[in-house]
């Protein structure tokens, strides 16, 4: 065999052995994402502020369901009370996240007489499971991530507890878990909705102020409401594209 | 209530008016120390590079010192972040799963490339010294000497050639490294500003000017700290020469005379950078007021109301204006400079404080406020880490480190 032939055949062997390797196609991150994103579920939430009476059952249920220490001054979901006074002032509060309901007239250290009130309502809040979540963007280790069905989760074993995501969320829904010392927030009760159950807060609400559904299913009651009624989202200006929709949202709501 | 459950952040956060339930001052004093320390590193390095790159001969002694000092500061720079993490043992995970959309995750890469530059530059500057030491110590008695000899011969990395040509090459390498170092140092700190500037949820931080403002004040703080440390060390030397009965190669007057010239020269550069820094900050303030977007109302109430003393009296008044005047009024003395420098550093600290704490002083609801009471008594680990003594630990660390490093890499040998 001549030197030239030897080289040629070596080359051929090399090419041939490389071929099967190329059969294992390397996916680009975008391709990989597209493959996973073919999910046919996108979780969405509706809060009806007309129906909420501020009983705080949802907050209690959430704390118990998700093991957030009951007396810790942090919570995955909360209810805000808004009073618009006849003199045009807005005052709001959420003592302990509204966990025990709003039974006192005292609000922000002042006692407001009912006759001074022009309008009053309650607004439940929770993680918006943003389409474009800044919390996921800023996490330095990728411990906060978004699932294919649109829910933002936190890996408790990987979070380093820097708090960057807490700073980045425009809705103030994140906090440090008092026991696990990692970032924590509402997950739409991911462990429940996957089993076909509703979230703990939806189940607990006696007035149907909260609903969860699949936005990719046109027949889902939640999707129908969003498609046909006037709904609004919170803090649209941040471009986070929240997936929690509000019925009866007022411009005073912060 | 909050007292029944010890939520650490609830310890030091005081809420006022309408604040969301999960809102607290999560980024406390250590996150103030973090940009302060990285800023000092960047500033010290820029000061040393002024001589190496631009050949500003009047800065020669200061340059050598600040290079080594910046190394000590560099080691401390990531510490505040580590102190602050709720899970400090997982800090390394940033390197395993860096998430490049996050400004913090860039820290590792920028920090390491920067460290390599600093260490290499130090090596080139001191290579001759290492070689000389390892030769001089050869065969000397005592375990200490032989250990030292071993250390220095390792430090030479086997490059024993200290001929004219080799040294010339070293000089060239130093110049190149110092040159690359300037943008990297600025980047190191600029990105610390980016960490804040890119948080769109925070009305005070959200400005593209943030990185530039941080770079300028970093240089100011670094130069000021180097000068102050230098003065203190030199004064101490002078004091020792005067008071001891031992005979020294130099007299106290020699040390003092060389010193004031050097200080005056360096002060000129400091004043220049101070002007740049303050102009940018004021530009930012004016611009916000002029454009007055939705968040301006609450920002204004914090800037001109709640934090007025912190911002206008402590930061701009005592931290900028007063030392500026002290430095430009003719007849500069060492004592006046030292006092002005301490004020400059204080001013930069207050600037960091006003950015980090001030940025969290208002609720995301734009309808309430939060106040940070820095924990003094370190009765719990959290109260220590996120309190006064935790900050003090970080602040003192570089001096201890410098003292140790200077034992092996003397940057302060007095040359006449
Ligand atoms: S509401 Fe906040 S925590 Fe939830 S996904 Fe959006 S940015 Fe993240
Ligand atoms: S606190 Fe945890 S989840 Fe949040 S950004 Fe830091 S590492 Fe990520």
Structural notes for this entry:
The complex is a heterodimer of chains A (254) and B (416). With 254 residues, chain A is an alpha+beta fold. Chain A has helices at residues 3-23, 29-36, 57-65, 134-138, 164-168, 190-193, 200-204, 221-228, and strands spanning 43-48, 78-85, 90-93, 106-107, 110-111, 117-125, 144-146, 152-154, 175-176, 183-184, 210-214, 231-232, 244-247. Chain A has eight helices and 13 strands. In chain A, the strands form five sheets. A four-stranded mixed beta sheet of chain A has the order 11-1-13-12, with helices on one face. In chain A, strands 3-2-6 form a three-stranded antiparallel beta sheet, with no helix packed on it. In chain A, a hairpin with a 6-residue loop joins β9 (175-176) and β10. The radius of gyration of chain A is 25 Å and the shape is elongated. The relative contact order of chain A is 0.20. Chain B is mainly α and 416 residues long. In chain B, α2 (29-54) runs antiparallel to α8 (164-197) and α6 (106-136) crosses α7 (143-155). The complex binds iron/sulfur cluster (2 copies). Residues 127-130, 133-135, 152, 169, 171, 173-174, 185, 240 of chain A line the site of one iron/sulfur cluster.
Helix content of chain A: 25-40%
What is the helical fraction of chain B, as a range of percent?
A: over 70%
Terminus-to-terminus distance of chain A: 83 Å
Gap from first CA to last CA of chain B: 67 Å
Low-confidence sequence ranges of chain A: 19-24
What is the average per-residue confidence, as pLDDT of chain B, rounded to a whole number?
Answer: 89
Q: What small-molecule ligands were found?
A: iron/sulfur cluster
Structural class of chain B: mainly alpha
What is the oligomer described by this structure?
A: heterodimer
Largest sheet of chain B: 2 strands, antiparallel
3D shape of chain B: globular
Q: What general outline of chain A do the C-alpha atoms trace?
A: elongated
Strand order of the largest sheet of chain A: 11-1-13-12
Beta-strand content bin of chain B: under 5%
